[in-house]
Amino acid sequence: MPAGLITGGTTGIGRATAELLHSRGYQVAVTGQNPGSLARARRELPGDVLVVRSDARVLADTDDLVATVSERFGSLDLLFLNAGIFHPAPVGDVTEKSFDEQVGVNFKGQYFTLQKALPLMRDGGSIVFTVGIGARRGSPGGTVGAATRGALLAMVPSLALELAPRRIRVNAVSPGATETPLFDKLGVSPSGRDAMRTNIPFERFGSSREVAEVVAFLASDAAGYVTGQDVVVAGGYGLGV
């Protein structure tokens, strides 16, 4: 039975991916930090999904996570590095605390989770990063978030080459505007959402399930010859501009 670890897997895209992979026969572990989201995930996800509280910024937490996953699954076929936070602010308003938090979760945390989980990865497995279109297409107030996600994207080609001898594929998925709890956390108004839709050729937001389907593809044998790529899932946003 294949096994997958999903960081940031208690809500949104991560949770949708956990549900999808579990329905297709995967053993699944998900991580999160928010007590409420962790409780809901433990209550609502299938009982055999492993839900682990883990702060990506704390390497001791990552060590414990990897040890727990190793004990439960033995090895991994998929590592989906999806955890991330976003604190939009103009450059002049960015604080050192906010900067460090975003770098710590979005870049440092994902990097060292990869490093520590890599010994569990089976040859021929798949590693997928969540990046997002913000790393390529700017938005006011998004400098730190874009930079941290862009750092992940910059690593993908080098990692793909480094892990090619083990036939481990390394790719990224870049969602556009997607209906997740992040909208509510950021306080995006209904009028703001309407304005965003006008820039999307499909004239709607994506769903977490649609992004999860792409991750599942990248994890599957159907993507056995795909590595070093960034798959954009954004309803055509940015085309023709």
Number of DSSP E strands:
9
Strand neighbour order, sheet with most strands: 3-2-1-4-5-6-9
Helix count equals 8
End-to-end distance: 45 Å
Give the fraction of residues assigned to helices: 40-55%
Q: What's the CATH architecture? A: 3-Layer(aba) Sandwich
What structural class is derived from the secondary structure elements? alpha/beta
**On the 0-100 scale, what is the average pLDDT?**
92
Pick out the low-confidence regions: none
CATH T-level fold name: Rossmann fold
The CATH class, by name, is Alpha Beta
State the major sheet.
Answer: 7 strands, parallel
Rounded to the nearest angstrom, the radius of gyration is 17 Å
Give me the CATH superfamily: NAD(P)-binding Rossmann-like Domain
Keywords: Oxidoreductase
Organism: Kribbella lupini
Protein name: SDR family oxidoreductase
Family: Belongs to the short-chain dehydrogenases/reductases (SDR) family.
Structure, described:
Helix 1 links the parallel strand 1 (3-7) and strand 2 (27-32). The protein is globular and about 45 Å long. The longest helix is centred in the middle third of the chain and has 22 residues, at 96-117. The model has no long low-confidence stretch (mean pLDDT 92). With 241 residues, it is of the alpha/beta class. Helix 1 packs across helix 8 and helix 3 (59-73) packs parallel to helix 4 (96-117). The chain has a 7-stranded parallel sheet, with helices on both faces. A two-stranded parallel ribbon has the order 7-8. It has helices spanning 12-23, 35-44, 59-73, 96-117, 143-163, 182-186, 190-197, 208-219; strands at 3-7, 27-32, 50-53, 76-81, 121-130, 169-175, 178-179, 206-207, 230-233. It has one domain (3-229): NAD(P)-binding Rossmann-like Domain (Rossmann fold), CATH 3.40.50.
